[in-house]
Amino acid sequence: MNSGKYRLSILAGLGLLVLLLGLMVTNLLSQLRDLSTAQGDSTQWSISQLDTEFANLNADLLDQLATGRFSDEDLKLRVDITLSRLDIVNSGRAARIIGENDELTSLIRDLGQFEELAISVSDSSNPLTDDQIADLLTIVTELRPNVRRIALLGLSLSAEQSQQRRAQFAGQLRRTGGIAIVLLVLMGALLMLLDRMFRQAAKNDAALQSSAKLLSSTVSASLDAIVTANGAGEIIDFNASAENVFGWSRSEIIGKSMEETFIPHHMRDAHHNGMRRYIKTGQPRVVDAGRVELSALRKSGEEFPVELNITSTEDEDGVKFIAYIRDISERKIAEQELVDARDRAERTDKAKSQFLTLISHEMRTPLNGIMGVLDLLKTTKLSSVQERYADIALASSEILLEHTNEALDVTRIETGDLKLTLQQFSLPELVNGLADVLEPLAREKELRLIVELGDPVCMDFYGDKNRIRQILTNLIGNAIKFSDSGQITVKVDGIHGPEHSSVKFKVSDTGSGIEPEHQEQVFDAFVALAPSEGRQSRGDGLGLSISQKIARRMDGDISLKSEVGVGSTFTLTVPLQRREEVPNSDATDEDPVAPSMKPCKVLVVEDNSINRKVLSDMLEGMGHHVTQAVNGADCIEKSAQLEFDVIFMDISMPVMNGIEAARRLRHDNGPNAETRIIGLTAHGREEYREAAEQAGMNTFHTKPIRLDALRSIIAELSVADPVPMVSAKHPDALGEMRDALGAEQASAVGEQFFNELGEFASQAREGLFEGEPLALAEAAHKMKGAASLFGFEELEPLLEKVEKDARQGAVPDLIAQLDVLERCARKAESDFYVRMSVPS
User: Fold this and answer.
1) Do 475 and 449 contact (CB within 8 A), yes or no?
2) Which residues of the chain have a pLDDT value below 50?
3) 3 state SS for 709-746
4) What domains can you pick out in the chain, each with its CATH number?
5) Cα–chain-centroid distance for residue 174?
6) Contact present, 498 and 578 (Cβ < 8 Å)
7) How far apart are CA 336 and CA 322, in angstroms?
8) Omega within 30 of 0 (cis) for the link into 284
9) Tell me, what's the pLDDT at 636?
10) Apex CA 699: angle with CA 581 and CA 627, to 5°?
């Protein structure tokens, strides 16, 4: 379209140039004609001839008067000739020349007298008289000087005008020539431009033909099927790939509609309606909508998946649709195979995790019996040899328990469920206690186990002591295992920073060492160096890998330095908080209170008869009264009949598990609704922490439960004076309030607090705060402040959790939290009034 307008503009320009050239040539011809007319008129000759005629007339008149030889006709003819010449001078170019000069105009005007007399003579029919001739001669003689002056002036002016016309013509001719040259240059340029355009057009045409051939070749050689159809859906082009994909030959399918060829029957109505809607509205769903996956039909009737992209174009014949179709049958098969492989891998991984969890549980169950019996055995009188054997058996059981824990940690680490349990602990007690446990294994191989504690770490820290103990057990156990002589050195030191202390545990052995190229491999999962590589083979290849992952989970790490033939040093670096920097911590290990033991009524709920017997023997050996239950249902039945001081509840049991049993005990309001429940599990603690807390368990312990741990649990219940349990963290808060306000007023204030707390719990249960989490948060904050003022440390964290959840937008387990809160409130209220009644 634009090139056509461009060519039209050029042609119009050429036309204007030709027209301009024609006008200039016409002007030149006109001026040339003017020059030619001036020569034909013979202006100069006519003016000079006037003088000649006057002279002839004058001579003839003189001769007639002297001789009389002329006839009247001859004289009249001469007069007429003179008048005719005068008339020529008064007309044509001569008249214009005369008119342009005042002197000539005046002289010509003086000839009027002669003209009147001459006309009268010429027109007279009478013979001429001598007087008439004499008068005519007199006038002619008088006017001859004027006529001579006219001739001279006329000749001069005519010559000047001729010169001017020639100069003008020459100038016009030069201008015309110049313009003609310019026009010729412009015409040449236009012709060159036209030639260039024609050559470019020829080149574009050739390129277009080449592109068309290339496109045709591309379409023919395309691996995708390319089908072109008109607006009616009739196929007008079909490439070779389409023939291979659909099974139709090009000659067979041209002219047929897409609906009756490769659109599946169940999609034909939708295809027809979609094409009609697109043509009518121009709104695409499949057309011009990018690649979509659909089904297509082969000539054989086979339906198969395709990837389709339909574009549209429009020409003078109407709309055209171009479909790019790819057979994705093989890809879909491959994708399905990948999905199947992924599902198999997930099932395998799940089965592995289930197996590890199951084997961990099944191994812990007999270990519980073994270690419990060994603890009981050590309470009996043993010989030195028997005591040594019991120590070795217990140490081996500890190692086996650590391996069992590692198997469970694999699942936790892979699923991201590994959690840390922060608590206060004494670092010297942790390291020395671990050394005491592992020392028999070192002594068995005649190795010395040396512990060196730096002064900066001889204090209490806040962290996950069980995980640190697990890592150190692995590192020290490996050092003992891979050393045949010499010593194992455990060196602990640290650097105190402004917020944390960086504690380093260095475990050095005198074993054979590890080759440099193998030092990174020891931290890979399921990798153990063979004995030929200088180290004793480990059974599972998990210990160091899991230990490193746990260390990094605690923001620490494990590094290795080893020299072949000298030994290896593994360094655990862990950041820990110093105890004095952790106010109001939720430490689970409180400072032990020297209890005044008294017998307790204990219910042991355990489905494994060995574990039930061992735990019962431990408790009875401590002087307590023990009742046994074989499952949760049996526990509910026995708890309805007797009141117990503490219930040890196994979590995983048949008939009814421990979680459900604890939940029913808390909600049944029976004699044991407030009894302390200790959950026992052979699984990991973290798997059941939240469920156990929501069910109402006070705490829970991972099997096997050792004798020392059992004594600590019972010690919390068996103190002679239970009053101090009310506020173990702030023992003087209530006393100070009673001293400041008096027992009566303090009791009134306490009663008001518990009434408001009960009203808060009732409003929350009735849904008063539903949809208003901020109001719930403010109410919980108010009650938390009051609980802190009274020193009710068991209530304060519960209210703080409600407040925190509410400020985040919702409290998902509000009813469960309220159950725990109300139980603690009843206990706190009872202890409060007991404390208020104690004399100051």
Assistant:
1) no
2) 1, 38-41, 530-541, 581-596, 719-732, 740, 840
3) HHHHHHHCCCCCCCHHHHHCCCCCHHHHHHHHHCHHHH
4) 2-196 (1.20.120), 221-327 (3.30.450.20), 422-581 (3.30.565.10), 601-725 (3.40.50.2300), 727-837 (1.20.120)
5) 77
6) no
7) 30
8) no
9) 93
10) 145
Are 612 and 606 a contacting pair, CB within 8 Å? yes
**Amino acid in the structure at residue 800:** E
State the Cα–Cα distance between residues 243 and 251, nearest whole angstrom: 10
Segment 156-198, tens digit of pLDDT: 777 777 777 777 777 777 777 777 787 778 777 877 887 788 8
| Crossing angle of the two packed helices 773-790 and 795-807, in degrees rounded to 10 | 160
- Pairing status of strand 225-230 against strand 235-238: antiparallel
Say how far apart CA 54 and CA 557 lie, in whole Å. 145
Q: Where does residue 192 rank: exposed (0-12), middle (13-18), buried (19+ CB within 10 A)?
A: exposed
End-to-end CA distance of the chain: 110
CB 780 within 8 A of CB 803: yes
Q: Give the contacts of 810 (CB within 8 A, at least 6 positions apart).
A: 773
Asked whether the beta carbons of 832 and 790 are under 8 A apart, the reply is yes
Residue burial 272-309, b: 16+ Cβ < 10 Å; e: rest = eeebeebbeeeeeebbeeeeeeeebbeeeeeebbbbbb
**Residue 534 neighbours by CB distance under 10 Å:** 18
Q: How far apart are CA 753 and CA 417, in angstroms?
A: 40
Task: Note the pLDDT of residue 503.
Answer: 92
Chain length of the chain: 840
Res 604: pLDDT? 93
Q: How far is CA 346 from CA 349, 413, 417, 432, 483, in A?
A: 5, 16, 17, 43, 40
Q: Which of 300, 306, 305 is nearest to 247 (CA)?
A: 300
What does the block give as tokens for 403?
A: 């391996």
Interior/surface letters 502-532, b for 16+ CB within 10 angstroms, e for the rest: ebbbbbbbbbbbbeeeebeebbeeeebbeee
Residue 176 to residue 348: CA distance in whole angstroms: 102
Strand 646-650 relative to strand 601-605, pairing: parallel
